[in-house]
Amino acid sequence: MKRRDFIFKSLITGVGLTYSGNLAFADIIPDGKRISILHTNDMHSRIDPFPDDGGRNANQGGMTKLANLVAQIRKEEENLLLLDAGDVFQGTPYFNFYGGELEFKLMSKMGFDASTIGNHEFDNGLEGIFEQLPNAQFSHICSNYDFSNTILKNKILPYKVYKKKGLKIGIFGLGIELNGLVSKKNYGNTLYLDPISKAEEMVSELQSKKCDLIICLSHLGYSYRSAKIDDLKLASSVSGIDLIIGGHTHTFLDEPTRVKNQQGFETIVHQVGTGALRLGKVDFVFSKENKMKLASVRSLPIS
Amino acid sequence: MKNDYLISIREMGKLKSIYSLGLFLAFSLLFACSPQLHKNVQASYIPADSNVEIHPEMEDYVSPYRENLDAEMNKIIGETTTEINKSGSGETALGNLITDLQKEHAEKTFGYTIDISAMNNGGIRNILPEGKITLGNIYELSPFDNYLYVLELDADRVKKLAEYAINRKSLGLSGLFVESEGGVLVRYLINGEKVDESKTYLLAVNDYMASGGDNLDFLIDAPVREQTDIVLRDLLIERIRAISEKGEKISARIEGRQKLD
Asked: Which domain holds residue B15?
């Protein structure tokens, strides 16, 4: 009874709440395969928490704190992927002095599985990415930048399939239009390709590989009033993406946006602001029978 | 499972209000109506707030990087005679200093005369204290990577810039004098002279302004003479170091470049 009370509370109170409940999901749904997707975006070289200057974010965020959250969740979640939606680079003097070395090394230590290419990754040119890639023990995935005439040829993956305890998770990435945003000198011969047609191509490729879950790491931005492509338009236009992990617009979503497109497919769009102030967590549960199973909100005590 | 929950609610008898029940049903329906029957999902976020401890192992790893960085940031690159701050309406001491240094750097880099240099006051994030100036001071003053641009302005665009300066009271200016009466532009001069309608003037700005930031729409289509990857912060550091090497101190004050009423 206590357990049900817990679930009930988690449903009505929504997100961002912390519990001290030590409830493993397997207790609720013994036959459910489960994977937890942890995600960040726009960390912007925020290695340390924001400075103690009386500002809104003082003493919050930063990769050294984020690492603690990730470590705690790893203790309790058996099956997880840790993903990032780009703009790891630029924002503090750590980037100006070390060029992204420390960012990639800390992400590797935390066990990131993949990131994508945000516009600020180009801030030290293609060479700046090339030089730092050896520090990243995780994949960089971007499907709509064609790097084949650059030094990044074959260094950035168009997609990757992760096998996690009987589940196949297909991940692809989408980058924002470079022209007008990034200096031509910095992106060189990189070609920007249409995100919608690339997304359709990736979804069909990943479906043909029998992926149970398809995730897009997007640095397109959450939503624009103009016709510019964004995560919400992507979700409406392309069926088959289960989760869009967004970035670029530094949007703090208090709850993810569910977009149901004309074909009836529902995509979840999530984004967690900037500066490693928040760690997103999306839990998927797969049932053996096609029965409804509820997933629980499960946050960790952070005191 | 949905029924399971309804039964459990009945059993619990803990519902405080119809409102809670409504919310619960709304959530149940949200999940129940999902066409993706195989997958169910719940999403949340966890704040890395002040209650979260710093990971000790990560802290150990970062600390030598931070020490090196701090040592760099604490390096003294120059000295001011007095505090150079952002007080004032439109014209400020710091805006004057930055636009002067930007103009000087552009002229040295390209080898020709720049007529006007402008800086959006909003992009200046801190002041320069009296006395010793560290590298860190300049990073705080200019944390963004703004790049140096040179635009070609016709007489019409020069007038628009002058009007913008008096209306918004948010620009630092070098080379362009503006004066208003009753909020209306009454006089503007480039290096003390009236604007020649047939001439093209060169404006040094950052890329944010050149691309129409802060509603500087009239700059968007101005012909670009130079598009550089020279970061404003770096050029300030280079100029300040050059002044120090000559044994001079940095000074700037409000001197009546913008007479706004």
From this structure: 2-32
